[in-house]
Predict the 3D structure of the following.
Amino acid sequence: MTQMLDRRTMERREIRLAGSGGQGLILGARILFEAFAIEGRRASQSQSYEPTSRGGFCHSDVVVSEDLSDFPLVTGLDALIALDQVGYDRSIGLIKPDALVVVDERLAVRDVGRLHRLPLAARAVATGHARIANMVALGAFVTLSGLCHPVSLEEAIRRETPERFADLNLAAARVGYTLGETVAV
Amino acid sequence: MSARLTALHGNHACALASIAAGCRFFAGYPITPSSEIAEHMSHELPRIGGTFVQMEDELASIAAVVGASLGGLRAMTATSGPGFSLMQENIGYAAMTEVPCVIIDVMRGGPSTGMPTRPAQGDIMQARFGSHGDRPVIALAPASVQEIYTETIRAFDLAERLRTPVTVLYDQVIAQLLESVAVPPPEAVHVSERKWANGAGPAYQPYAAGEDGVPAMARPGDGHRAHTTGLTHSESGFPTQSPPVVDRMMRRLLGKIDVNQALIEKYETLMADDADVLIVAYGITARAARRAVTVLRAEGVKAGLFRPITLWPFPEAPLRRLAGPARAVLVPEMNAGQLVLEIQRLVGRDPPVHPLGRIDGEPIAPDEIVTAVKELAVHA
C-alpha cells in the first residue's frame, strides 16, 4: 500500500526534481510551486544549475512550509524525482528513509525509500516528445504522493507553460497519473 | 487596499520594488546571477517613460547612473562581484559628490569570475572598503524575496534622503528563489524626496549642509549654479586642498552616516536575550541559522540569532549589548571570514568570536550551524 501524504498537513515538505540541464526541471518545480499556491499552501522554489545551457547537474527544489522565514532550501528530502543518473547520484544522499523516490526506469538505482522506477522518458516520447518527461514525472508524483490535487497541477501547467504546448503538457501529466496509479497498489 | 501575495523570484522582486520606489533609469551590463533584474527593467522602464540602457561595461554603467541621478532621476544598476569590482571608483565618486544611487550586487562565488551560478557572500568587505579613501557607506542585506522587495525600496529612500550611494547585497540563492511576496499597493510605498535647493539664488552653496549633514541639491533647470567634482571641495563645490576646509568637509561627509545611524540601522533577533551562543548571520545564511536556533532550543541548547539587515554601518550597539552576556559568538558566512572581522572588532576577546566559513559554492546548511554551536556550547 502506497503511503499517502496528507495534503492538508502543515508540516514542512521537501521535494526535489533532479537531472541534467535542459530537462525542464526548473519549470517542473515552478509548476509544482504554483499547484501548491493554488491550494493555498506556501512554498519556496529554489534552483541550482551550472553555466551550461544543456547538461550538467541541475536540480530545482520545492519546500512547502507555512513559516515564510523558514530555511527555504532542502535539508532532508520527502520526495525525489530524478530524470537522469547525475541527478539521482547527487541527490539520493539527501533523502529521508521513507522518502518517495520516482525515477526513470533507465537509471541505475539502489532500493531505497519508496522507490518507483517508471518509464518516464519512454512514455514522454510515445506521447509526443522526449522533452515532456518532466510533465509525465509530475503526474506520477502527484498520484503517488497525494501532496496536491491533479486539478491544481493541471491549472498550474496551464498557467506556467506556453498555450501552444498546453495540450501536450496536460496529456503528458495524465500519462503520468496512469503510471502512478499502476504502481500505487 | 492591502498587500497582495504574488509569487516572485528575488531578482524580479528587486526590479518591481525599484519601479515602485520611483526608479526611472537603469544602466547595466548583464551578469549572472543578477541578469534578470536588467531583463525585467528593460521590459518595465520603457512602458512607464523610464530609460533602460545596456552599457558596454560596468564602469560605464555606474557612470551613467550617476549622470542620470545628477539629472534628477532615481537611478540604479545591478551586477555581481566582478562588475561590482569594476564599479568601485565611480561608487566613490558618487559618495564624494553626494549623488544618490542604488547598486544591487548579487553575490556569486569569487574571486575573479569564480563560480557564476553558485552563491557566496564574498563582497561584504568590498561593499565597505572597495573604493579608495574614506567614504560614507550604506549596505543592506535582505534574507528573503520579501525582504529584497522592502530593502530595495529602503535603499532608494536612504539614497535619496542622505544623498549617497546605497548597495543592496544578496546571493544567488535568494536572487533565483521563488517565494510568495506581499506586494504593497503603490500608495503604501514611501520614498523620501531628495532635498532640492529652492529659492537660494546666487547665494546657493551646493555643499553647505545643516544638522542632518545633507546638502540641498540643485535641480537641473532651476537656475542654480552648481559645480560637481570628485576632487575635495568646499561648500561652494569648487576644488580645494586647504587642510581645515578639507577636514571640515570630509568630517561632514562621513558624519552624515553617524548623525543618521538610527534611520539607517536595522536588525532582527531571535531568542538572543538569554543566548549562551549568539549566532550572527545575514542573507540566506541567516535563514539556516534561524532553523538551527529552533533545533538547538528544542534540544535545550541556548542559541540565539542576531541578524543585521543593515550591514554597513553595522548595528554596533545592539550587537555589543546582546553579545556581552553570551559565552561564545558564531559567525557563519559564505566566505573565508569577512563579517567575522567586524564582529571580533566590536566584541573583542570576551566572549570569543568564531568564524564558520564556506567557500565551495554551497550554501551553509542548518546542520552545520547546529554542530558548530553545540561544540561551542560545550567548550565555551
